[in-house]
Amino acid sequence: MKEQKILKVENIKLINSVIADLEAICNFEKDYVVIKLHGFFQTDDRIAIQEITRQLFLEEETANRTFGSFSENLNFLLDSLKVADRKTTKSIIFIIDEFDQFCQHKNQTLLYNLFDVCQSAQAPMAVIGLTCRMDAISLFEKRVRSRFSHRQIYLLVKPDFQKYSETFVSLLRLQQSRELKAIYVRSWNKSVEDLAQDPLVQGSLKKVFNLNPKLRLLQNILLVALSRLGESHPFLSSKDIVTAIESQTTDCKTLQLQGLSVLELQLLLCMKYLDKIYFGEPCNYEMAFYEYTKQMKNSSMQKFDRQIAMKAMEHLETLEFIRPVEGISSSKVQKEFVVYHILITSEQLTAAIAKYPNLPTEVKQLADTCL
Amino acid sequence: MDFEWIGDPISVNEAARQLTSKTRTFYKTCKYLGTEYNIGDHVLIANSEADDPESFRHCYVASLVYMYEMKSNKKDPFRAQVQWYSRVEQLSKNLRKDGVHPPLDDAWELVHEGQRYKGDVSIETIFDKCSVLICEENEVPRGVGKQKKLCTFFCRFALGPKNSRDLVSVKESLTKQLADMTAKTLVDSFSAINQSDKEPTTPRRISTRSRKMSENDNTDSSVHPELINTPRSSTRNRQPSRQLDNGKNESCIPSASINTPRSSRRNRQPLLLVDSEDDESSVHTGPINTPRSSKRIKQPPRCLDETLPSPLKNSTFSISSNKTKELCIVIQRCKVTPNKEISAVELDQASKVKARKKLDLETPVTPTKAVEQKTPKKPKRAGSVTPGSTQKKRLRLTPAISSRSGNLTEPTSPLGEIRRRLHVAAVPQTLPCREDEFDHIYNYVEGKLADGIGGCMYISGVPGTGKTATVSEVIRVLKESQTEGDLPDFKLIEVNGMKLTAPQQIYVQIWNQLTGSKVTADKAAKLLHAKFSTNGPRHRPTVLIVDELDLLWTRQQDVLYNIFEWPNRPKAQLTVLAIANTMDLPERLLMNRVSSRMGLTRLTFQPYKVKQLQTIISSRLENLVYFEPEAVEFIARKVSAASGDARRALDISRRAAELAEKGSHNISSPTKSPSKRGAHPSKSTVTMQHVQAAIEEMFSSPKLLAIQACSLHEQLFLNALVQEFNRTGVEESVFDQVIRQHYTLCDLEGMSRPNVSELLSVCASLCSSRLILSEHGRNDIRQKVRLNIGIDDVSYALKCL
User: Fold this and answer.
1) What is the number of other CB atoms lying within 10 angstroms of the CB of residue A117?
2) Strand B29-32 relative to strand B3-6: parallel, antiparallel, unpaired?
3) Spatial separation of the C-alpha atoms in residues B539 and B61, rounded to whole Å
4) Origin recognition complex subunit 4 C-terminal domain spans which residues (chain A) (predicted)?
5) N or C: where does chain B have the smaller number of CB atoms within 10 Å of the terminal CB?
């Protein structure tokens, strides 16, 4: 008969293991009901209440029940909980994932009523809310907060690289089993431990760890690395790990920039230049094209005329390298004069230009002057 | 006017006649709209509150006791005294919920109301005759239903004594009524009050009730004072030899019959007794019955009609003084019977169910239809689906939760017991520290109920100050005093604004709790308007509790307007207790016309003070000494300094008890108050340390920890935000500016620069835990970012690393 809140990271896993433990202790069928809600599935109280009713009365014939109006359902649920008695009825455990989403609902009706039932001698129940938001309690309305038990558990762990690399090893390690030859398992485990000691791998792992120490990212990286294995390549090498990490952490904008035409790249460089000299003020097509013609005056490169440059500009917009400034409706303004923000940093441009194959040297020089 | 009296005025009895000359003339028969009504007839009375007042489903059923004309009442001179019958669905919930009875959901079944309500109605509300069969408990007569324009109802049960939850067999109850009345006088006369403890209550109740009613009744129904007066005057005037024109007299009201035995007490002359009883005998019934004797009391009367509408109607009393003793003995036996009757009802349950099934099989004419009912636990739902009104057959789930198999283990350790008591849900026996507010509300509601007028009270206070608890305590005490007969019967309606999906749903809720039927919001509003503006024939005072009033606010404020308008109507008899958090809600939110109707009766619940919180916790702990008094005081001080919320105080103390219990299990913390632990090695005490730990756990800010749990680049990003703020002085920064700062910091730390995608994911991760706030990610590097925590917090947390 209390409500709790669990924050952060692997909360649902923890809850599931707790529920599994609980299941081992008492007989599931007999003593309690678990009701699971999710803030992104039950997007309003009406759906949530229908879902609760459905999960609560799963044993009864729900097939014939026609779900009535919202208020009918709410009253029905509240009546049910009121009828229940502490001594005789099953306990109910509510597990609400992303429960901060429920705070957005109108009047927080569901939360209020759940907490109110917890706080009054009605059905025995516990409400466990999971969220990743630190300030979730401040989202409660005053009267809801008063009914909340203020029991909070924070799953906050200080990141520790030693443990991280241990996890890396334990994720990859194989268990002895019948399908696998013992000798392979042994040599695989040995290779994994060697890999963990490899300075190249350690450096890359440290980089990832500094950015995002979460387990999920590590698993994704390892999955990519493992998928490279084959008969000819039975053991993981440090190169596999490094490329896998790169594949998970490369900058997508830089990759995209490498697929642009020279004209588009030139236009972007011009816009970036304007952005720099005007201290982040947005610019329009006319300004960018004027800058372009200025640069091309003494150039031996092919010059494109207005229409083609316009087309290139539109292409940049659809790729979201540039973005029209909000608040100015683009329909009223001629498209030459729509003002754009450039959404690329100079680092991204430099990196892209360095990798661009067969780029004319003039553009490279231009980039050096512009950026 | 389609109304005429038939026959000459009749005199009721000696006493009544004195007053009769002034105000009213009694008649035996009348003709209204072509139908003749005699005293003793069963009639249908229009229910002005129902949607269709004259439908057979919604009208009231009663039997005529008196009919009289009141000259002084110009508007509505023709009136009648009636004995009511209840429809099954009109019975209050707790009566029907009683699992003892077989389901009473028959459309044509009535319940005799006994002495609970006496009605004084205008004859014009009567619209038809009907007939009522009085049956044994397990008997269901044939031929009930509507046949040839005549409705036939049947009646098996009567309501037990006031506010008891039991139904008793109608025959026995009628007999008992008679016995009770006689008992009072006999008990008085023999001054044998100490015969049993319970005994005097019943007769006294009758008298208090009638007294109350006489106080409450207005001039147009001032029957009761006369009736109460009757005994005295009769004692004064009556001569033993006096013979009244008893042939024509009628008085069928049970309360009137009180005088009979009392007069016998005063004069104690058998002859007189016979006289007065002759007064009461009615003419129109055929055979004059055998004198009521002990034998008659023992056996329920065989002829059903004889016992109705009033037990005294057809009986002629001839109790001589030498029989009184015998009667007294019998009455004692009658006193015991209610229990037996209950058990009899229990026993008969099965047979009744059988009988009902039989009825369904045998009488296809009757429109009875077994309502879909899954468990007998759900009487309300079953009642709402009345077979007559709605033909739709809808399967409904029972509002119940499946029961557990194993029994709960009661807490064994003292700390477990403490935890149980400290739970907010545990209902305390008393509400300490709210005595003044309690008195205030109690006196207000009691006064309104006693005066039969309406009013409304606004109760405000911050959450957790005991508003709802106090009000429900008031209601509980009111119900108790109502059971004792000090207050008129009232109907309680509780609505919580939070439990409504829309403000308009309050009408549906109120109407549902009033009548048990479900209608749409608009319809319910109309019906409620009608109900509170007319004084229906069976109008009871209503107490409406509206919790979380502020949620009923709408732009038009029509809901609030109506809630406060109804009590101001002269006939509504509605008392509204409105509860909300804010003290100045009427001034701040409400229009003038609404706050004016709300009136100025306000009550504010101040947040609890230190002493009060201390009292609350220790009153819950009672005699359990495992909680250090200093610890209690510490909690009280902490909470009162912050909010004064009693819930919080209880939560903290419960958590502290939990911690103490945990600590005692694994004695890993010998440092915590070693002296105590040394004293009680087996039992642990809740000490200051536990309280401190509980408070820290509940109220410590997790932000410091959260920052320290961030990855290196997340921390750098936070730092970069601080730097950017220091540079610009504006809280909001643009993402690409923060990137510059971040890169600078990276260079300072000698770390490789992460790319923009990586930094965006860092930003998103910080944003999901709300350490920073950011715009929509669509804006990419132009999105605006700001810290959601203090800059000092960030610097401090990063310095600690």
Assistant:
1) 24
2) antiparallel
3) 15
4) 167-353
5) N
